[in-house]
Amino acid sequence: MDSFEGIVEFIAVAESNGFSAAARQLGLSTSHVSRQVARLEVRLGCALFARTTRSVSLTQAGQGYYRQCQNLLVGLRQANEEVTQQQLQLSGTLRVSAAGAFAEQYIAPVLIDFARQHPALTIEMDFNSRMVNFVEEGIDFAIRFGALKDSGLVARKLANRDMMAVASPQYLAEFGIPKTPQDLRLHSCIISNNDHWLFQQGDGELSIKVEGRWRSNNVPAVIAAAEQHLGIAYLPKSSFIAPLAKGSLVPVLSSYWNRGITSWIVYQNRRFLPMRARMAIDHLLAHFADWLE
């Protein structure tokens, strides 16, 4: 069994590209991780990593060994979980990255319900739209909206979401009602994540570059600016439920709204996910299976 020592540390270093990051991931000291990997290299009689003062990378031998060890470790973890699944009590910490009003209003309550069902489980939600490093930060999965840029991640469709353009009655009375998306170039627009708004026109899509006096990546701040007559806002329809109900905002350009933009569950492209992450993802997918914006 001594020949298995250091393999977990080796895989962690390979996946996180560094001894310090691997130590944080495993909850061990950097010196312990380094020592275990060094002992493994001595037993194998070859270097698994090329080390410099600035980086750590797999050697050719290390790459082949990593592929084999990863499969072995995945199989062992899955075997352990399958044996204990019948008497499963989820524990540990589930770390989720999310952002926006959809995550606050809809994702968080579902995960709260999941936590309530599993009293030994801790859930940490980081509300941040930045790109995360799943390995270094210990993130199990993230919730993201729209087109995904990182093709190295697994993406599972959570829900389709329709967009909606709105403005305050006072703003429209003063500046007029836009008839087509092209008219937005003559209006002040409240910009959230980007200044290119995508609309549907006939069977195609139309991208309009907009400008305005207010920009924020916070949905409540965008809504507040629209209610204070600063311009036209364009967000997922569910963002505007309350202001539409009280009449502080009204829809515009309804025949051009982009329909069916997707919210995704994304996670690192690897075969093994902890049971707590797999069950949380299944819980979210089941909840949103028939969800409508």
Automatic annotation (TrEMBL):
Reply yes or no: does the keyword DNA-binding apply: yes
Q: Which PROSITE patterns does the record associate with it?
A: HTH_LYSR
The record ties this protein, via SUPFAM superfamilies, to: Periplasmic binding protein-like II, Winged helix' DNA-binding domain
State the UniProt keywords alphabetically: DNA-binding, Transcription, Transcription regulation
Return the CDD domains for the record. Answer: PBP2_CrgA_like
Keyword Lipid metabolism found: no
Gene Ontology biological process terms in this record: DNA-templated transcription
Q: Please list the GO terms describing molecular function.
A: DNA-binding transcription factor activity; sequence-specific DNA binding
Q: Which residues form the HTH lysR-type domain?
A: 1-59
PANTHER family in alphabetical order: HTH-TYPE TRANSCRIPTIONAL REGULATOR (PTHR30537), TRANSCRIPTIONAL REGULATOR-RELATED (PTHR30537:SF10)
Question: Can you tell me which family this protein belongs to?
Answer: Belongs to the LysR transcriptional regulatory family.
Q: What is this protein called?
A: Transcriptional regulator, LysR family
List the source organism.
Answer: Shewanella loihica (strain ATCC BAA-1088 / PV-4)
